[in-house]
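1st attempt posting a full record on here, be nice pls
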Amino acid sequence: MDEENLCGMRRICGGDAAGKLHLLLEFTSRPGDVADPWYTGDFEATWRDVLEGCRGVLAAVRGAWQ
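the predicted structure (as tokens):
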């Protein structure tokens, strides 16, 4: 959901040669990090980010199957 998570995933997976690892908000019109409620206390902003990102992923998957 943020660059630190993505870095950890690349480390665990031994890199990302196939280009399959992405930040969730890369599937939206405003790529970047999902708001972190641990620091902001704004769970609504996090919910909106995750919802928008999941909708974007679903649209990308649907587009790949058509």
